[in-house]
Structures
1.
Amino acid sequence: MHRLKQFAQLWSLQTLLDLPDRLKNLWQQLIGSYWFIPSACVLAGILLAPILVTIDEHFDRETVRELSFAFTGDDEAARAIMTTIAGAVLGVAGTTFSITIAVLSMASSQFGPRLLRNFLTDTPNQFVLGAFIGTFSYSLLVLKAIHKYDVAFGVPQLAVTFGIIMAIICALLLVYFVQHMVHAIQASHVIEGASNEAIKNIHYWYKDRCNIKHQRDVVHQDVEQFHTWSATPIYAPSSGYLQQIYLKSLVTLSQDYAGVVQINANLGDFVTDRNIIGYFYQRPANHPENRQQTNTPKLAIVPRAPDSLFWQRFAGCIRIEQRLSHSNDIAYSLGQMTEIAVRALSPGINDPKTAVNCVQSLTSCLSIMMRRQPPSPYHFYRPSSEKSTSKQPAPDKTTSDNSIIEKVSHKPRDAILAVVTHTPKISDFIDASLGEIRGYATADLMVLKALCQALVDLNYAKVNNAQQQTLLHELTLIERAGQDNLSYQELVDDLSAMCQQAKQFILDDDAQHQYFAYVPKFDAHIRQTLQAQSR
């Protein structure tokens, strides 16, 4: 019933603007389920069997016998072959499923339960299982079409030949499945998959040219003044994780009620039905935008307070799930690599090299974010050309306020502020990823030095002083963590020396054109000694 309700919302008049995003989310949910691709393969096998049997009925048998690879045996041989194929692929499908369950169990203990989705949504794994059970379904239906006596139509030779080909393909897929699962359980492969997903989400949100033109061109001061308007709290329609915000539908809703919707919750945040996730700011009665004309003459947009229809439409503008699942949330993708690193640093696993690989992958993702323009928190309603060029009513000369409003309404307006969302800063992502790993790696010099090197690498991508201060602050925390938790003073001195060299490098104005290489004090002393002896 929940899925039917979601499907019904796709075709409501208020959500047609976001129909591509809603269909994309529905498709991701289908692909994310373990049953979709195998079920599609079973359906393909069920449809393919009667089609080939029908072709056999109208195909020349002599032509089939001329094909060297075609099956030309009698009904007993055909029945034996199809029975063998059906039994073999069903047994192999059971073995494949058992191997998958074993891999999921091992992945849950090594990488964390939240990484199981990456294994369940593995398309090659689903396709191999679907090919096995699809071949089984096809073999059963072809076996049913084989007649015992050669009457008007006897053995479906093309169908049996195709079944043999499918059996050979299934044997090759079994070899590929074993090789694929061996690579899938490797930590480097899991980290690479999580990194690619994070980079994909970063490209989705952080574009080369962000749409911030409206913030410069809009004449009115709503960006600074909308907080002074009458505010109505917005509660979450249900409890769960905020997975998606459909901005186009939300912009249309705020414009219909002549106000501004501010969403303070981030994607991935857990909310309850009593949480205030934002506010609806209603425009004042004398606001210039209330005089904007619509397609109907002398019909202006009048502010109105939120009613039951407003809350019903708002519930369709956001998507809340009971469990945290895949979405376009960058923090969720970065959190997967962070979880792998934290679990690798646990005493039960104790694999600091995996944690270092996670730090390096996180550095690559954060470097892309630092070089790109962050998404704008302000989203505007753009009136159509008909609305902006429609005939304005004559100015009302009775009051001075109306004349002022009419004068303002004649000014060309590019956009109207409609929705304000919360955009995390790069410092928030650094603290939630590298900072969390630092909290678990306080006694591991290898990981702490990898974090220090990561901040140096991020310095090559910095574009402003705020990012530079964030890197310096994180370096200070890394140095302090090593001083308080490392076992030997030599290790503390080594880490402190690297942090100091990294700080000097970051503070250098020409650092982005230089190469950073940490030189320990002991190596520097040996180098000076050798140089002195050579002289």
Note: Residues 285 and 397 are 18 Å apart (CA to CA).
2.
Amino acid sequence: MSRRRTHVLRVDLSAGETARERVPRDRRRDYVGGKGLGARYLYEELPPGTEPTGPENLLCFLVGPLAGYLPGETRYAAVTKSPLTGGFLDSYAGGEFADRLAGSLDDCLGLLVTGAADRPVRIEVEDGRARIEASDAWGDDAAETAERFPAAGVACVGPAGEREAAYATVASDGGAHHAGRGGAGAVMGSKRLKAVVARDPPPSVPDDLAALRDRDAAAYGRDPTGEWQAAGETVETVDYANEVGILAAEGWTGTGFDGADDIGVEAALERATGREEVTDAGQGEDPAVPGGFRIDTPDGEVVPRGAAPITLGAGLGVDDFDRVVELCGVCDRLGLDVIGAGNAVAWAVRAGEAGVVDCPVSFGDADGAERLLAAIAAREAPPDLDVHPDLPNALADGIDAAVERFGGEALVPTVKSMALPGFDPRAAVGVALAYATSDRGACHRRARPQDSEPLARPDRSPTDRVRDVVGEQNARSVLWSLVVDDFVGEAVWDDLGAEWLAAVDHPAVTDRDGDAPERGDRAEDRSDPVAALATTGERIWTLTRLFNAREGFDRDDDALPEPLRTAAADGTPGVDVDAFDRLLDRYYAARGWGDRGLPTPAALDRLGLAEVVDDATPLDERPIDLAEATDSDD
């Protein structure tokens, strides 16, 4: 019989105390786990203006109600207030740590960590309990930290997190996996929390779910996405992006990179010693889809994901696959987000070329990029790197911080201070909408118009683009609350996991109208489980918007960044600003939000959030009129 996850573990690092706490049934019903549950705790417990690297910030390590049972790789969510953006952050990672965390938490949905220790510590999780232990690993990189615990799963910060770099990762499995974007590692480092160690083995899949898991894993293996992942994993995305004309190259100066073939999937196939072993409980002994490519380097094995050849390769003008993988390995060991770090180096190169700041690193200079990455993690330049002495420290706080210190704002784009992934929306405006409206800053995973729009550009109307982005944002909010594998989750896309949740009698689908609370003048309709989950996804997405609104975010923060408004150096035209603004109006209208991009009382009432929102959260009084938002450009 499957295990019910009904509790969380509280860890107060300031007091040195841990406790178990039951999660109310209505909270599990309305927010499920993972992203949703984290958003609910963050909104309730963080006063507006909480310092992200202060002890009051909440850092959550969360799984979903089906952790360890779902098809694909088990994953966990790191949820906190971002030191990079100042807003909501959720970031995800899989691998052995996630597997063991699912087993070690027992009947719990995760850890809620507050406070800050006065010395380096680690949290040990075992048998559904947590304990705080002193750590002598401070100063170790991610690989060295993991080596200290060969019989456990380890998530840790590297030197970048210890120094609170704003895009530091929570690195797991020695740096093979990362909760990467937005700086959860900086929050972890600020708490003097070196590592979370999960001691127990993964949960075994109960008989009542094994057939369901095997069916969906096999179906994913036959799915086009599964076949794509099996053939090339995410490394293939550099080939795809270059082929369809959306690959940002050399600091966003052009779309397309002449060396893409040298750093893409064929190069990975030639160099790989094999694929990651994905034999966790979620895939069984014969996984339907293999893991990432394992590449040997002088400093150890590296498993590069698609962001490495895109951001550290094309983005930095490096066409040597071996050097791209080595740069990825540097980021992995230091605990730096590959996308954030690669874009920071690209900004420094362009700023140096423009005379904004002293920086001798050039595009194509892998050695110089490696030295600058190490300097960013250390927040200071070594003697052999002739850069402005303030540059590494400024870059560690993100591109916007470097712009504030030195100027050069129109060089490399950011959204909500987060650097963009290397899919250039100047060639696909739907991608621009997905980036701009993402709750955590520029993200290519909240919605994925880059997968379809470049291949169907003439047929994509504004209505299509908005429908796709809104629908995917809502759906992924549900799937990331289940914390399903980001790709194998396609196997449960059609019903948003309703069949799985019903199999474990989860209140998100089993509570019917009579069990649902009155919300405004109506009770929520739960007679259709899939429709109820769709509403759950919209509720979660809206709650993260409320969190950000309370922190001062509004329409201005959904703006198109300046570099994308102008033509690239290779002649690729910029995004039409007026057309984008009309698209943004359509998006707000589709969500029932107002012209400032804020939810309305009517939207909150419909989603059951009226009793959650506080007086410090600004709202729009009425939604944008959909007819007015659409009649000018259809």
Note: The CA atoms of residues 14 and 619 lie 35 Å apart.
3.
Amino acid sequence: MVKKDSLIKGTIILAAAALVARFLGIFQRIPLDYMTDSSGGGYFTVANNIYLMLLIVATGGIPSAISKMVSERYAQGRPDDAKRIYKAALLFGSITGVVITVLLLVFAPFYATHIAENPGADLAVRAIAPALLFFPIIAMMRGYFQGRQLMAAGGISQIIEQILRVITAVGLAYIVLAWGWGQSWIAAAATFGSVFGSVGAFCVMLFYARKLRRHDALEKAAAPAAETKSTSRAARAPLSFKTIYKEMFRISVPIVITSMTVQFIYFFDTSLFMKLTHGYYNAVDARQTLDWLGLKAQALAGIPPILAIALSQSMIPVISAAYSVRNMPEVERQASLVMRIVVFTGVPVALIMTIAATSINGLLFANTGGSLAIAALTAGTIFQITMMTSNTVLTSMNKPHMPMRHALIGIVVKVVTSLALAPFMGVYGLILSSTICFMTIAALNFRAIRKEISLSILGRRWAGYAITIMAASGAGWLIDYVCRHYIGGIPAKLTFLISCIAAGGISFGLYVALLVLLRVVKAEDVRQFPGPLRKLLNPLMRVASRS
């Protein structure tokens, strides 16, 4: 029996999968940091970011559009139309996969030499290109499953993809290193791991597709005769692919532009880093800083938004279904719930990683170089999280053009501020411009949302929340500083590990306690949380209620 997943359960599945995938992705970069010098790390960063950028352009909006279209058709009792949409999406994914792969293989030398000014990166770019043959199809299948509120398929395929990618990438890079082929080939071997990951993810999606087909066949056989006749009439007049693509692109083009914002920023920063910071760094320092930015900072900064990404994926079918039947109280309740969860979980993760950036960097990588860049980029994800979640709220409410316009405004702000700040501040100018971009888009999104519904996030509890954040962050920073400066006589890695555990534990414990004691979290909030989180908070809630 195939069971649907609720918003909370779907979010947990996607968040857990994304968290595992993100840590596996970081695990891949740790040995690469030891195997590559600043040039090799730069080659990998350039190739990985253009690959991710093209992947979003090819697939970023279509899965969300499929999820929305499919969930609405099932809510309206039109399953055959939903399956027709799925077929059209698979055809589109197959064609775009071939086209994008060929273009990347052909134009890799031009991009690496004349745009990124990293000629040795062309091998890595070409090595990662074949992965794009499978990922567009995988993305279409994930969108369909999410529209059916079946999140496990996408989550498991994501984990399998990352496991295979990490194993093959690290293994191939080590072999090439042992053969002494040089930094360009090491980076190419590392990026080629994505090809194996895509094959593994595709196999998982095929398994779940077959499982879902059997489930649908059993449901159809058990359906009443009247329903079967109605379905047969609908099947004789299926949606044309032209109609499907028209609706799909109408929904997906705004989503593509919206969803590409973060990856465009990473792509922009790494592709034009050498050009924009030419007057600030010399050639050696520029390559080293680019290595830190791509291999360390961008990888670690991807952790805090994981929950927001999972929420964005799982909330689309739920809110879209409610909005399609104009159940506005449910839309308001779900949107407020998702924003509240983001505030309670995503923001503290970003702050804890910011204050412990040096210890995290020293623990994971070969040295602590780039720690300040990691802290600065991670701090900015607070606004990235709110931007991403508010984007999806608007998209789910049939207003995809609003976040698209806001994203375009934010991208213009990013480009202008980067041109103004990078020549004088280097990498920190690029990071600051990204934060300004996120803040701009988030502010515009919230203004648009409040014209449609009343969001109830924290109400008058913001003062208590601010006190909680400041106290937990301050305590964590102090513990981290003391551990790094006053613990001696043991290996440096062990010192960094102790510092991470102590700072994270103290910050998290104080954060949870103050949320309850200052009544930032209420009993009705706790009742909506997942089971493990309820068990953690219920004893504190009883203490607070007695006091």
Note: The CA atoms of residues 137 and 529 lie 34 Å apart.
